[in-house]
Amino acid sequence: MKQFSDLISAIEITNKTNAKIDALVRYFSTAPDKDKLWLIALFTGKRPSRPVKTTLMKEWCMELTNLPEWLFLESYGTVGDLGETLALLLPEPTHHLDLSLNEWMTELKALKPKSDDEKKAFVLEAWTGLEQQERLIFNKLIGGSFRIGVSKKTLVNALAKLTNIDANQLMHSIIGNWEVNSIAFEELIHGKHINYDNSKPYPFCLAYALEKDLPELGEPDDWIVEQKWDGIRGQIVKRNNEIYIWSRGEELVTKQFPELVEAMSNFKDDFVIDGEILAMKDNDVLLFNDLQKRLNRKNVTKKLLEEVPVGFKAYDILEFNGDDIREDAFEARRQRLESLFNSVALPEYIKLSFLVDFKDWKELHAIRDNSRAINSEGLMLKQKKSPYHTGRKKGDWWKWKVDPLTIDAVMIYAQKGSGRRSSKYTDYTFAVKKDDALVTVAKAYSGLTDREITEISQWVNKNAIEKFGPVRTVKPELVFEIAFEGIALSNRHKSGVALRFPRIARWRKDKPAEEIDTIETVKSLILSC
User: Fold this and answer.
1) Which CATH number fits domain 205-401: 3.30.470.30, 3.40.50.360, 3.20.20.140, 3.30.1050.10?
2) How far is Cα 518 from Cα 529, in angstroms, rounded to an integer?
3) Which residues contact 175 (CB under 8 A, 6 or more apart)?
4) 242-272 residue pLDDT tens
5) Which residues are catalytic, by number?
6) What's the Enzyme Commission number for this chain (predicted)?
């Protein structure tokens, strides 16, 4: 645990990517193989399910420290992170436990089916045998997240520096299905498990937001333009008569979309296709809010299949009959994809992405502006000669989204952040008018400068009305312009609407709270879309 704890400390004290990579390389160079595998698993979202409820951990801490609940909640509100709060409040250790990361994770996995009394005994033994930083790591292993700025790309770059293996191959090796206890570290990084795993997806190629004028991209004839759809990005893998569907978050979602599996079984060839999973009805694309009803379902009922049918718009083909064709030009891959789709009869809900016909860059402005009318987010611009990159590579693929919708709302709740921002209020809840009252419409935590966050935090400290754990109710005085990508009616929200990707566009110091938008104005945006 100390070795892993030292790694986390080394990463947390720097904002420099190269320093983080060097710290990871040092760890991989000296740690036991099982510990290396667990590190990769934890940083790529493969942690086991939480074995202990956080409410129990809170109760055990208050019991051990003799703290009243109000003081614990006040401490939690100040720190902003439960695992860190527990680590700071607990008394000094009485002994020292020296277990490896693998040993701790094995113990925690075995803890899940045990009784609450057995869990309590285990957790208290750990708390009293670990130093403060090690306790924090232990608490995070139970179910928290390591928000230390280590992306999959950073992790892969560290492994590439350590092993001299191509980063693309490493990324391919560590995503998908593998278990710590069923693979060796060398087998994982060399991809020994890939050949026999029919389900293995590829790392997604991602686009940058367009940051230049269209003529600066060069000749229009060098580009292919498609609609940018608001669904979930997915790879459909067909190998050896088996079909798998992966989300961009590297989750296997095959069982959630049985109609797509059935449709793809019509193909005789094997392939890996990249595209967008969308809620579709009568050949029209529905809102993302509709698609959400189909997500994360263990069982998809016949009723749900009828109420929210889904479709797939294919963007790209990455593998064909066992051959990795990602290095081929996009134009050639598109031709291969078209030939594949023309080889069989497919249902209406399985389609190739529509290519926008244009001769001049100026024509695209009107097409983009009309995107919301067809529930599109805007346009995708792809260089004809581009390969299918791993992750983002600036210059080849651009996303040109429609301008966001905006409303003016007042802040009514504020909550402190976590990690480096645990001392400041960074998470906010906003409301609009409904008759003579206020109704919440969105939560947001991005869009402000550090200086603005500091100023708002000072204001919250002076203008808080009530406390609910880490949350503060504040006077409804500060007005903000909230930007969002889409809006839909929703029975799950008190306001009756759900905003898509809300964020703070600007702090409206020029506007009094009396002039914020009404819920009727907000709902009228649904019709304008």
Assistant:
1) 3.30.470.30
2) 18
3) 44, 152, 201, 203, 250
4) 999 988 877 778 889 999 999 999 999 999 9
5) 228
6) 6.5.1.1
